[in-house]
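We store amino acids, tokens; thus:
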Amino acid sequence: MEFNFWLFFLDNLEASGAIGGYVSLSIIGFALISFVVKRSNDKLHRLIGPEWIHPFVGSLLGAIPGCGATIIVASLYKNRKISFGGLFASFISTLGEGSFVLLGASNEADVAGNLKAYMIITIFGFITGVICGYLSDIFSFIPSSKNNQVFNKDDQIYKTKNSSLVRIFIESIGFYIILAMAIFLAPVSIMALWGGEIDAILGLTYWVTLAFTVNCVIFYCVSRFFYKHHDCYSDSVDIKSTILHAVLDVSMVVTYVFIGLFFTNYIIDIIVGAEKFDLWMTSSVYLVVLIAALIGFTPGCGGMIAVAVAFITIPNFPMSALIAAAIATSGDGIFPLIAENRKDGFFVSIFGLLVALIVGYVALFLGI
């Protein structure tokens, strides 16, 4: 059969938009919750309790979908309001924005299977986070906390210099377009969780999902390369800025989902072939776990999103590889940590990777 690149391209745009519709609901919802929590930072500190319970609380916060909780924990650690074990536990248990890929499963994927996978890796991450957090505090595995923000002032000056046109696009035009599309797709996305659809707007929904993906990719690229004001770990002072941060995260997730789907489907369906690729996956499962952990280890949420996309796309993708990637990822919370102290960030990342490999191979040995 002759390969139709244009049809293949549109199919991946639609699939990304369908996933992105529910992802946007989740990200914006959790962003608003995080906003309320940030406004009550002192109250949160009191709720965390005595130091002996910090690893448990840190792991529990890390298990919350998205990166908001780890960013908050990094801020609490910076102000010495949570122990290093609590910080480490949070970074071990987080799935970052990759959680929304699994939670955002629609009729484009196995909804029940993906939600089950989300629960399994969340439980593994939470338990591992608690154990590693307590070990860190008991044996005092605490790196030097010397501040390394040497060029903070120059960086802040640089970030304030923005093109007015780019700023208008990010904060007004592009922002409202993506938000409007997300609102339109909301009922369709919720219906898709049960395999349903709204027949009356089926054709319109198809074009909106395509446009949603395209707009998210453009929005993300412009914000990433031209818009220097946005800082993924800065404090959101009002609802508008909170939702703007959420829309920026939505555009990032949808962009990575599209790239992941496009290249994964192209490699499997066109270059290698589904049967041959499936055979390689089952015969090289130990290597897949290692690769997944290394991809998840990369700073930010992109790596975990890529592995989550691979899980929902590739048949027989091992759960143990998804677990390894989930534990290895630090999400966006790693950036404020590195900005404050590189040694803390290095410790959390490297030991997180080692723990991820151990747990991933144990899960594989147990047949998970």
Summary: Residues 5-365 form one domain. The longest helix spans residues 5-39. The chain is about 75% helix and 0% strand. The CA atoms of residues 314 and 356 lie 21 Å apart.
